[in-house]
Amino acid sequence: MKVINGIPASGGISIAKIFKIFPKNLELVKVNNCDVDLESERLKDAVLNAKVEILEIVEDVIAKAGEAKAMIFRAHILMLEDPEFIGEVYSLIESENINAEFALDVVSKNLIRIFEGLDSQVFKERAIDVKDVSDRVMKYLTNSIDEGYQFTDDVIIVTNDLTPSESIRMDKKYVRGFILNVGGKTSHAAILARALEIPSVVGTKVAFDEVEDGDLVILDGDEGIVIVNPNEEQIEKYRKLKENKKEDFSEFFNKEAITLDKKKIKIYANIASNEEMNNVLKNGAEGIGLFRTEFIFMGRNTFPSEDEQFSIYKSVLEAMNESTVIIRTLDIGGDKQLPYLKEIPEENPFLGLRAIRLCLNEVGLFKTQLRALLRASAFGNLKIMFPMITVVEEMTEAKKVLEEVKSELIKEGFNLGEIGVGIMIETPSSVMLADKLIKHVDFFSIGTNDLVQYTMAADRMNENVSYLYQPSNPAILMMIKKVIDITHNHNKWTGICGEIASDLEMTPLLIGLGVDELSVISSSVPKLKKRIGNLDSKECQKLSQQALNLSSSNEVIDLLKRF
Q: Active-site residue among 34, 76, 359, 497?
């Protein structure tokens, strides 16, 4: 028996035998003096077939996990149109008169080597994407039969890393977990594992070398632990833990989230597309707490028009039937780029021209989105939210543009509805200026993912500093408490839309800190309602006071486990 520690990436417990996936080594031969036109045509056909296949995957992922997760694969389509990738393959075929397979292999390996050599987890993820796309095109060039992996019994997959395509193709009927040598909580494999509800541990560094095919393992995706060849006592313990986690949440679809002492918490849903509305309504979300509009702009080659955006926003507002819909303006930059927007080279995009900074720099783009939003406001209960506000001047400038657009539309004869305005609290400066910012808005929404990253000075995509990505650190809790208290003092409200909103262990702490609204992926809505229904808000307040007096994230986690 041995224990391997890693990063908890997708919650849940699995007990099954190991299935190791070894790297594929395709033997390619360089063929010289080829017919350039023929090889270029073969590459063109392979790329076209790959695009068709990816589009089918996109539809599948939207159905299983929502539009936001599907953007991983939409980005693959853009890579197939990238002159620095596929364009370079065409150039190599032409300049050296070589076969398409060999040219693709050379170009993709060069790109992968460049991305892996950069000191950023974002670029390391891009290396995995290049491999995924290259493998798909190569499959059509070499006429390889790709039947995937066929299982007849439950297995836990162990490998160095999984491409997005490998992750999504795994048969949920038999695949009970992923154990990966590399990766972090926000790697593509981890994101898709959570979406598919497959327990996973990543960043183990050694698992692939320390287990054998057929070894029985216990995978604890909540704690990031892998127990290899456990004894009967351990197996029984984890079977009971797993059984206790099985719950039926259907009775909470249409219930409100009310604590035992009658405190009401609003439970909203996060979405990235109007195509997710069926799941939102089915799971009983009371509103939309975060509509990530950047995904409307991604996976395409031109800006969406005002009318395109208006149609999408209108459909969401109508579907929610006067319930609150909070739509965030374009949040591009950092790890999200638009291929058709001129990219300004930046050493650190996360600290650069992103979100509201980019919108105020590209006022025409900003105004088009605001026009579409304001036109849609006549069809429901709209609240507009600005992301990444760090100083008061950004807030006043954004509202000035909003008022200009509003005046233009009224002059043009459009009917506009009443709207609310809010901001994302994502930086330490916005926390410290919250008492000034609240005078300009109707509500705050705390984006804990970025707030933790910027406060702890730790890239959440970097597994080397993932130990510092601590949402439960007392420093973060103090910030949340400060922001909530300020809004309440002004008779306004604060929501949370980061990952901790759906962390059921954190729920009593967030209620104790005074949060008014939690926004989560739609599948988490009924689970969160049930969790809140079993809590007493006064006991939660006592818990939060204890947590605020602690010194470390680990102490807070221990406190929550005892609660």
A: 497
Query: What was the pLDDT predicted at 170?
Result: 81
Q: Which helix (H) or strand (E) holds 9?
A: strand 7-10
DSSP one-letter string for 432-489: HTHHHHGGG-SEEEE-HHHHHHHHHT--TT-GGGGGG--TTSHHHHHHHHHHHHHHHH
pLDDT of 156-179, one tens digit each?
Answer: 999 988 888 788 778 778 999 999
CA angle 312, 403, 360 (to 5 degrees): 75
Alpha-carbon torsion angle 468, 551, 423, 121, nearest 10: 0
Cα–Cα distance between 446 and 425 in angstroms, integer? 5
Catalytic residue among 188, 359, 440, 540: 188
Other residues' Cβ atoms within 10 Å of the Cβ of residue 206? 11
Q: Are 517 and 496 in contact (CB under 8 A)?
A: yes
Question: How many residues appear in the chain?
Answer: 563
146: pLDDT confidence band, cut at 50, 70 and 90?
low
Tokens at residue 123, please? Answer: 């670029």
Query: For 36-141, which CATH superfamily applies?
Result: PtsI, HPr-binding domain (1.10.274.10)
| Angstrom distance (rounded) from CA 361 to CA 365 | 9
Q: Which residues of 377-406 are buried (b: 16+ CB within 10 A; e: fewer)?
A: bebbbbbbbbbbbbeeebbebbeeebeebb
The full DSSP string for 390-409 is -SHHHHHHHHHHHHHHHHHH
Q: What's the Cα-to-Cα distance from 342 to each of 39, 302, 370, 537, rounded to whole Å?
A: 32, 12, 21, 49
540 as an active site residue: the answer is no
385-427 residue pLDDT tens: 999 999 999 999 999 999 999 999 999 999 999 999 999 999 9
Q: What is the DSSP letter of 5?
A: E
Distance, CA of 90 to CA of 39 (rounded, Å):
9
Whole-number Å distance between alpha carbons of 284 and 280? 6
Looking at residue 304, what DSSP letter applies? Answer: P
Domain boundaries, the chain: 2-21+149-231, 36-141, 258-562
Q: What is the pLDDT of residues 437-458, one digit of tens each?
A: 999 999 999 999 899 989 999 8
Residues 258-562: name the CATH superfamily.
Answer: Phosphoenolpyruvate-binding domains (3.20.20.60)
2-21+149-231 and 258-562: identical CATH topology? no
Model pLDDT, residue 187: 80
pLDDT at 243: 83
Give the CATH superfamily of 2-21+149-231. Phosphohistidine domain (3.50.30.10)
CA distance 73 to 59: 10
Alpha-carbon distance of 512 to 508, in angstroms, equals: 6
Mean pLDDT of the chain: 90
Is 497 designated active site? yes
272, 522 contact by CB (below 8 A): no
